TrEMBL record:
The lineage of its organism: Eukaryota, Viridiplantae, Streptophyta, Embryophyta, Tracheophyta. It comes from Rosa chinensis (China rose). Pfam families: PC_rep, RPN1_C, RPN1_RPN2_N. This is 26S proteasome non-ATPase regulatory subunit 2 homolog. The keyword Repeat applies. Residues 14-330 form the RPN1 N-terminal domain.
Length: 864
């Protein structure tokens, strides 16, 4: 290749330097090395081309290496090692890691950053490779912090953190073991947000290494605390379920307004929290009133008020009837007869409850009518339980109005009505706490009544009202029922579920022991009943998301009766790893689904299919892969798998109607197997829950015409229609919140119980236990952004609402939303949407603009 005169001069110059380096005169050698170094550093080229000095020195690399070996120890030798380390960047053979070798020989006193980004990046990669080969594990350790390699790592991390390459610094420290704490020395106000965002995001992909994941979150938590980002620190504390960390966030925060915002976050997450008592009076500005206000926020007492403010703003306060939802006039084909049938009325009851949830008024149950014409009495026997309980849905989160509506039914002569009223009391207390615990006071009296339906109403009500509270008083009241030999199976099942929900994710050994004994005491005939399988779900709930903590209980489950053993195994595994995104556990569950089961009555594959969704729903990538896996299972799986797969799809995309999933479920809703079709129809309701999605609504309308002769399928279509219009489109069932980072355990628990009940639709939902559908209330949340001022009064400000963009690891200040529209708060947020303030007049006290957000006036703001 012909070189230009300029290039030829450079080439000859470098060849001369190579000769001079080997000269016996040390002064000439030094001049040659310095000149070579200057030439390499000053050469600039395009990003895609190798710098010319490196290209022209390639033939001499071996010569310089050989000469290095025969040189005596001196500064010259160190300088040559420095240059060889850079030349090795493009010239050493793959796997030799010579760049690192010569860097170590040159010592750590040279500024590695002067050789540029690419060189530093290559060194980091070689250190990671060397560590992976177990050659450096001893050298890089806390006992040996002064070793040259550790100094080099510190230099690389410092360089990356100074040059906006925070992600690469984190990657290196993750690769070489537990050294993330080195970040503390290098984070500052300019880079801590990006560093922490990358740490928290990467923790999702380290479930197979829980210690690494926990360390990443712990470092992010400490960095957030250091810079006073308390909402972010609280988010991590909630993620790892650390009560001590939550307390630390509160005691570290001095700003009362900020504390109130933290209380809104705790309220949204659910669970049993109280404002720490050890705050100084100075911290609280000497005002005990603040403590009460904060406890009220945590207790969710203002949730109903905020929800109704949104409804009034959007002008959807007027109650809707089931007929408004069915829109039968749009159908040209056959529709179900207008004759009142018990099944049709029961469906109407549920639709009415779902559509008017939380609005405090409807046109069926709260309307004043003569008793004989009242809607309640258009339902038969156990149907009255769901009808009376629907008042709890309509009065959701509003305890005072709920009692006003339901109180009269507690004095009824009909046991079913009393049972429904008790369940209703539990429902409207869901997610809301009250100082005097009215739900416990009333429901506790009915738990030991003789009538099984009254007992179930009270017990189920307690489970829903106190989910996640870990209330020992209720535990001690319900535990004896599990060991009562005379108690019927349905009472024992609902007691176990309530205990599972109250102690959800607590790993409480006493509760787990009681549920295990209840399972062992069941006869063979009882274990064949679909209800008995829900007892194993309650055991799973106690360990929800707690990963390895389930192992001792999983060993005990090996001793269960063979009818329930494998079913219980799958349920425990899927609950313990729910929301972790652990790929290895998904593979284990898929392995169970791929087995061909010959034995009749073997039911373990259903929970395994649901388990795939429960584990994979944690993050978007795993979610997409799980959808594809479920498509394969639908094609090749047996009947027990095919009827569970639609429900698993419904869980993956709950309140988030993805078009591909919608099409799959639409196809399955016409399946020849009625159980698969029913599961698909209910799942259509779940993926569209609270979205008012027009396409799903249209599908369900045409299905109601298609199945007008099939009472069971028509009932499922009606339930799905009610779910799609949940809260008139203002609510969601998605258990994830705070930018999809946190998962509400109680919300997921309610959904899991309902889905496991749907695995045997005919025996439970279409039988006399249809009120199991009300477990979904635990996941109902307003999908709103409501901004409030410093006095917690609603404040309308303009916001941009658009599709959220993943900005993890991106350079600069990228836009966090795309395709936005500007609205005034309060606004409704769809799945995958995010809001940001238009004006800088106010500063939001939460980094996540969803739910209740306190705005503080920006004192530096000047109007244009």
């Amino acid at each position: 290749m012909d070189l230009s005169a300029e290039d030829l001069a450079v080439k000859q110059k470098l060849e001369l330097y190579v000769e001079r380096v080997q000269d016996p005169d040390p002064r000439l050698q030094m001049v040659a090395l310095e000149s070579m170094r200057h030439e390499i550093r000053s050469s600039t080229s395009s990003m895609t081309a190798v710098p010319k000095p490196l290209k022209y020195l390639r033939p001499h690399y071996t010569t310089l290496k050989s000469y290095y070996e025969i040189m005596g120890a001196s500064d010259l030798k160190i300088n040559l090692a420095d240059i060889l380390s850079v030349l090795a960047l493009t010239m050493s053979a793959e796997g030799e890691r010579e760049s690192l070798k010569y860097r170590m020989l040159a010592g750590s006193n040279v500024d590695i950053g002067s050789w540029g980004h690419e060189y530093v990046r290559n060194l980091a990669a070689e250190i990671a490779e060397e560590y992976a080969d177990n050659k450096l594990q001893f050298q890089i350790s806390d006992e040996n912090p002064n070793c040259d390699l550790m100094k080099l790592v510190r230099q690389i991390v410092a360089f990356h953190m100074r040059h906006n390459a925070e992600t690469e610094a984190v990657d290196l420290l993750v690769e070489i073991g537990d050294h993330l704490n080195l970040l503390f020395e290098h984070v500052d106000k300019t880079n801590f947000k990006k560093t922490c965002l990358y740490l928290t995001s990467s923790a999702r992909y380290l479930p197979a290494r829980p210690d690494d994941a926990y360390l990443a979150l712990d470092i992010a938590y400490k960095i957030y605390l250091k810079f006073g980002e308390y909402p972010n620190a609280l988010q991590i504390a909630l993620f790892v379920d650390g009560h001590q960390l939550i307390r630390e966030v509160f005691t570290s925060c001095d700003d009362v307004l900020c504390k109130k915002q933290l209380c809104y976050m705790l309220a949204r997450h659910g669970g049993n929290y109280s404002v720490p008592d050890d705050d100084d009076d100075d911290n609280m500005d000497g005002d005990s009133n603040n403590r009460e206000v904060m406890q009220d926020i945590i207790n969710n007492t203002k949730l109903s008020e905020g929800y109704l403010i949104l409804a009034r703003d959007l002008e959807v306060m007027e109650a809707k009837t089931p007929q408004d939802i069915y829109k039968a006039h749009l159908l040209h084909g056959q529709v179900s007869s207008s004759v009142d049938s018990a099944r049709q009325n029961l469906a109407d009851t549920f639709v009415n409850a779902f559509v008017n949830v939380g609005f405090g008024q409807d046109k069926l149950m709260t309307r004043v009518e003569p008793p004989k014409d009242h809607w309640l009495f258009k339902n038969k026997e156990h149907g009255k339980i769901s009808a009376a309980a629907s008042l709890g849905m309509i009065s959701l989160w509003d305890v005072d109005s709920g009692f006003a509506h339901i109180d009269k039914y507690l004095h009824s002569n009909d046991n079913h009505v009393i049972a429904g009223a008790l369940l209703g009391i539990g429902i409207f207390n869901c997610g809301v706490k009250h100082d005097c615990d009215p739900a416990l006071a009333i429901l506790g009296e009915y738990v030991d009544r003789e009538d099984p339906s009254i007992r179930i109403g009270a017990i189920m009500g307690l489970g829903i009202a106190y989910a996640g509270s870990k209330n020992e008083q209720i535990g001690s009241q319900l535990n004896p029922i599990l060991n009562d030999a005379k108690a019927p199976l349905d009472v024992v099942t609902f007691t176990a579920i309530s205990l599972g929900l109250i102690f959800i994710g607590s790993c409480n050994e006493e509760v787990a022991q009681a549920i295990i004994l209840a399972l062992m005491d069941r006869t063979d005939a009882e274990l064949g009943d679909p209800l008995a399988r829900l007892i194993s779900v309650s055991l799973g709930l106690v360990y929800l998301g707690k990963q390895d903590n389930v192992e001792a209980t999983a060993q005990v489950s090996q001793t269960f009766n063979e009818k329930i053993r494998r079913h219980c195994d799958m349920t425990l595994l899927s609950c313990a790893y729910a929301g972790t995104g652990d790929v290895l556990k998904v593979q284990t569950l898929l392995g169970h689904c791929s087995q061909h089961v010959e034995e009749k009555g073997e039911t373990h594959q259903g929970p395994a299919v649901l388990g795939i969704s429960m584990v994979a729903m944690a993050e978007e990538l795993g979610l997409e892969m799980a959808i594809r896996s479920l498509e394969h299972l639908l094609q090749y799986g047996q009947q027990s798998i095919r009827k569970a797969a639609p429900l698993a799809l419904g869980l993956l995309c709950i309140s988030n109607p993805k078009v591909n999933v919608m099409d799959t479920l639409s196809r399955l809703s016409h399946d020849t197997d009625s159980e698969v079709a029913m599961a698909a129809v209910v799942s259509l309701g779940l993926i569209g829950a609270g979205t008012n999605n027009a396409r799903i609504a249209c599908m369900l309308r045409s299905l109601s015409s298609y199945y007008y002769k099939d009472a069971n399928l028509l009932f499922c279509v009606r339930i799905a229609q009610g779910l799609v219009h949940l809260g008139k489109g203002l609510s969601t069932l998605n258990p994830y919140h705070s930018d999809r980072f946190l998962q509400s355990p109680a919300a997921l628990g309610g959904i899991i119980v309902m889905l496991h009940a749907c695995l045997d639709m005919k025996a439970i939902i279409l039988g006399e236990y249809h009120y199991v559908l009300y477990y979904l209330v635990m996941a109902v949340q307003p999908r709103m952004l409501l901004t409030v001022d410093e006095n917690l009064k609603p404040l309308s400000v303009p916001v941009r609402v658009g599709k959220a963009v993943d900005v993890v690891g991106q350079a600069g200040h990228p836009k966090t939303i795309t395709g936005f529209q500007t609205h005034s708060t309060p606004v409704v947020l769809a799945a995958g949407e995010k809001a940001e303030l238009v004006t800088e007049k106010y500063i939001p006290l939460s980094p996540f603009l969803e739910g209740f957000v306190i705005l503080k006036e920006n004192l530096d703001y000047k109007e244009d």
